[in-house]
Amino acid sequence: MQMQIVFQTRNPSRLADFWRHALRYVREPPPDGYATWDDFAKQAGVDLTDANVDAAVDPFGCGPRLLFERVENPTIGNAVHLDINVATRAQAVDDARVTIDVEVANRRGGTNHIMTVTTTTLTIDEWPKWRSLRLATLADAPEAFGSRLSDWADAPDQRWRSRLRDVPLNVIAMLDNKSVGQVSATNDGSSTSVELISMWVAPNARGAGVGDAMIHAVISWAEDQGASVVELSVKAANLPARRLYERNRFLFNGNRDQADEVRMIRTLP
User: Fold this and answer.
1) At 222, phi and psi to the nearest 5?
2) Are strands 251-252 and 100-108 parallel, antiparallel or unpaired?
3) Cβ atoms within 10 Å of 171's Cβ, excluding its own
4) CATH code given to domain 94-227
5) Which of 11, 85, 94, 169 could form a disulfide with 185 if both were Cys (CB 3.0 to 4.6 A apart)?
6) What band does 219 get if pLDDT is binned at 50, 70 and 90?
7) Would you list the DSSP string of 103-172?
8) Mean pLDDT (whole number) for 136-162
9) Distance (Å, rounded) from C-alpha 28 to C-alpha 256?
10) What is the model's pLDDT at position 127?
11) Residue boundaries of the structural domains of the chain
């Protein structure tokens, strides 16, 4: 079992230094093949001064990884997420539908509000659910995707059905029974690599664990496909998205699909 504790705070480096001293942890070393984090940043084409993240690890490899990230939404304040990855999962999951229930406690307005995040894999006949979220996605963040709202606003029903038929995994996320996110994945016939695409979380649901739950759904599906890696592209300037992927153990691989994008990869156990 692998465990990670994520602290969302206003000062990641300061809190990381405190816990490294208190637990006798050390700063997380750079990825394999890099002597320093500066070498890694240069190869990946990223500026670590803007990353707003820090990490601490047990030098003996026994304790959980601690990840510290700067909070984006001041209404959330300090929050802690517990991420658990079990290497051997029970396979008692419906073939057509994967549901992950995640309870996230956020402190809002001085009181605790418990929210339930549920992810569901859509069938082709459930394309209207995908359409409503996809149109909201393209209206909210057109710069983050290759499609434009005008490309899909008047698309016929058959085009939406084809989209879900051609992409093997299409997941939506519900927060307190409201649709707030979507993600897809494809393997392009490959038995080793899965591509995570079309990730979006509604603005009012960000910071509530929705993105993490959808990534977990993709990872679960990729493992079921026998894949060894999950890959993705993200806009280099989209720091919140990059921190979300870093929190879920994606690393920059130094490649780019476009000049303003970076490639990230997660190796599966």
Assistant:
1) -60, -40
2) unpaired
3) 27
4) 3.40.630.30
5) 169
6) very high
7) EEEEEETTEEEEEEEEEEEPPGGGHHHHHHHHHHHHHH-GGGSSS-HHHHTT--HHHHHHHHHHSSEEEE
8) 88
9) 25
10) 95
11) 94-227
Contacts of 89 by beta carbon, 8 Å cutoff, 6+ apart: 220, 223
Q: Which of 236, 226, 211, 246 is nearest to 37 (CA)?
A: 246
Q: Report residue 237 CA to chain centroid gap.
A: 16
pLDDT for 163 equals 95
Could you tell me the pLDDT band of residue 96, with boundaries at 50, 70 and 90? very low
Tokens of 215: 């990534």
Evaluate if residue 266 carries a pLDDT over 50: yes
DSSP 49: G
Which pLDDT band, with edges at 50, 70 and 90, does 112 fall under? very low
d(CA 104, CA 264): 26
Cα–Cα distance for residue pair 135/95, rounded to 1 Å: 27
> What pLDDT score does 48 carry?
62
CB 216 within 8 A of CB 100: yes
Residues 41 and 173: their CA atoms lie apart, in Å, by 33
What local confidence, expressed as pLDDT, does residue 19 receive? 86
Amino acid at 180: V
DSSP 30: P
